[in-house]
Design goal:
Blueprint lengths: L19 E10 L4 H11 L6 E8 L4 E10 L1 H13 L3 E6 L6 E12 L3 H12 L3 E5 L3 E8 L1 H11 L4 E6 L3 E4 L6
Antiparallel strand pairs: 1-3, 1-4, 2-3, 5-7, 5-8, 5-9, 6-7
């Protein structure tokens, strides 16, 4: 079987909707296999996870919060939320990216290796971005930087020519401001 260069073996959607990014906060029972079930839902339906963070948030009730960043057309995002809501260990699904009162942050540890003027410039850029040097040697820095993903990405872009050698990122965390309305 030969395909024309503009053809694909994968189904192509004729959907004219624009893809959007969605940040989902999923409150789940903290029990073995819960994360595997949530991730399995995405994998089985060929949805992509761009970022994933998980931690227990209520030890007494054994609840965890899974924050998932994904993209898709609005109808696909709605489908993801509905399918997540039907999983047994899932208690609540919120699309915090659609809420005006949501805060979103990420943490990154950024290693920069350099000498001379590059070190001076790296420190100057770190100060501008309010990044904190958490490790300093004669040949490298490790900076801790927090903020919106755009800020983290901008910091990384500026550090690349100055000797960026390694990055560790937490993924997006989010929470609503004020009192929970649910």
């Amino acid at each position: 079987m030969s395909l024309h260069p503009s053809q694909s073996v994968y189904p192509v959607s004729e959907n004219s909707e624009e893809e959007i990014e969605s940040i989902l906060a999923v409150i789940v029972d903290n029990e073995p296999g819960t994360l595997a079930r949530v991730v399995g839902l995405f994998s089985a339906r060929s949805y992509n996870i761009e970022s994933l963070t998980v931690a227990e948030t209520d030890g007494e009730k054994h609840r965890s919060r899974i924050t998932i960043v994904t993209r898709g057309v609005p109808s696909t995002i709605e489908q993801i939320k509905a399918q997540l809501g039907r999983l047994i260990p899932v208690r609540r699904v919120s699309d915090v990216s659609r809420e005006q009162d949501a805060l979103q942050r990420e943490l990154a540890l950024v290693k920069v290796v350099g000498e001379g003027e590059q070190r001076v410039e790296a420190m100057r850029m770190a100060e501008i971005f309010r990044a904190r040097a958490v490790d300093i040697t004669h040949s490298s820095f490790v900076f801790e930087v927090t903020g919106a993903r755009d800020k983290i990405n901008a910091f990384l872009d500026l550090m690349r020519p100055l000797g960026l050698s390694d990055v560790a990122r937490t993924g997006v965390l989010s929470i609503r401001r004020g009192v929970l309305k649910d």
